[in-house]
Amino acid sequence: MTTTKTKETGSRSVAMLRRHLHPYLIVLLVLVSCCLDRIDSWTPDVLTKSYITYDNTIPAFFGNSTDYFKLLDQDDNSILIGARNALYNISLDRLIEHPSQRVMWTSSDAHRELCTLKGKTDQDCQNYIRVYARLGANKIMLCGTNAYKPLCRYYNLLPSNGSIAYDNNEMEALGRCPYNPLHNSTYVFTDGHLYSATVADFSGADPLIYREPQRTEQYDSKQLNQPAFVSAVEHNGYVLFFFREVAVEYMNCGKAIYSRVSRVCKNDKGGPHPLNDRWTSFLKARLNCSIPGEYPFYFDEIQSTTKTINGIYGSETNQIIYAIMTTPENAIGGSAVCAFAIQDILDAFEGPFKWQQSINSNWLQVPQNQVPEPRPGKCVDDSRTLPKASVNFVKMHTLMDSSVPSLHARPVFTRVSLLYRLSAITVDPQVKALDGKTYDVIFVGTNDGKVIKFVNIMSSDSTDEVKTVTISETQAFPIGTKVNEMTISKKSKKLIVISNGKIISLPLSNCNEHEFKSCRKCLELQDPYCAWDDENRECRNTDELHQSSRTVGRFFQRLDGLNINEICKKYDQRDQRQHKAEENDVYMRVDGSGSAEKDNPLETKNIVIIQGTVTSVGSVDIDNEISKSSIEGSVLTNKIGSHPYHHKTDTLVKENVSIASFTGSSA
Asked: pLDDT tens digits, residue range 153-172?
């Protein structure tokens, strides 16, 4: 009787709870639906094809925990890494250092003592190599933070033994090198000149873009407003700088950070006296990386860029650059990769200017009749002869009215995560697939140690449409370790991943992994590096194929993902029949703790694993992914790859594991 009353009371309580929660559940479902619609518009690349983890056997180069590695240069065989009190030359093949080409450069005792007197720590008061310039065939220049007193030195390359010798010549690096190794600075060395973007004072309050003797205006927020410099590239007669800064045009509405690209002319000689040490060609424009719509969603903070890439996009040859853009630090974590055409950037600098008439006015387009001639900011033969009207105009109107649109009018990749943001990017440009089309294979690193690989499979056909495939996600570093930089070695077919204190080398592709041993699995990767070899029935890297055999019918690729089941049906069915025949010939034996014998040529036993005991409990047809598992000494292992959060179910070990059956019914 008591039990019956309890049940009735419980039923009434549940009914009342349902009535009270009903309206809230409806609201919750509506909100979830809206959020899913929004997230879907952010992430056209929802599914990742493969999750990969690596052990400690991969090639790696370690430093001290405070080395703050920085990639300075690269050739076919090695990379130059700036570090704490040292420059390392590291082979790309196995990440082994060439000790004879190491440069050791420590700050003097006097400089370190002065640094500590200014309140800096011992870690700060070291010399971190940040700038490398090849001045000639046998001469280089290095610049370091030098205990918060930046300095440059010259070195000679000795062809006889490949070593590097200091030539006892040095100079101050003010405006060339940062004071702090963590400062967001960049540079490019071109045509015999060093173009740098850094800070010129101890406190970091004087940012500048500099090429001796020209610089941006000092303490002028209209030119540079608390910038964080990201990268610099040269293009024909220009040098382009990419950075993020506090947006002056938004100041009347609050504080916001925008991504910028700025331009200076290589032949800029400064203005007429007394402006001979100021740029006459410095202009900047906003970079627009946004989700399109009636109210676009902007990714406003640029974090990293690739080098310029020459390729075919939408059946046209173009030069582009990829950039990582993120949401603000205190917003929901969103990251995107946008592509920008160099020509679109240059066109923005030929458009109208933006200005603010008074401090309380809105920022508006400058009327064309107020722009002096010759047009301010243009490259001229001798900028020292420009009229003062043009020089003063460009000093006060550095911001362009038009922003630079992204190539596809949308990101090529987006990722929403509360755990990490994208932090570094590199690209293997124009990888040729078996169909003759070319694709950019893009790798992005995160501030949580991941490396994500993806490709826009529509890139060669259209610049209006994006269809991104996320091929793999790799936990390259321990969780919490930021990926700072990445580069690709075409010769060794490796991806070099760099953090503050470690460098690792990863393969560009994983075509031969166990999980891709069928035609369907191989083609579903949609990886330009991988093709199914029907003759050997294996997934192979396309670099391994002879050029003469790439068009022969034995190799298959389907980057568009269409009709894969139909293509692979006959090949996979043949493989399944062969695997079944091989399995039927296997005699399964477990030493000491039990046995599973072959009772029927078409059957095998189910296995129960409980604290090391293996017992036969029934029979089931072998027709599932776990059928290839092997039993050795009470351990059953399934090495088929899956999401990293599922790894505990990927490897079934003998400790505290209970499995009734894989499929079918138990005994």
From this structure: 999 998 887 789 998 899 99
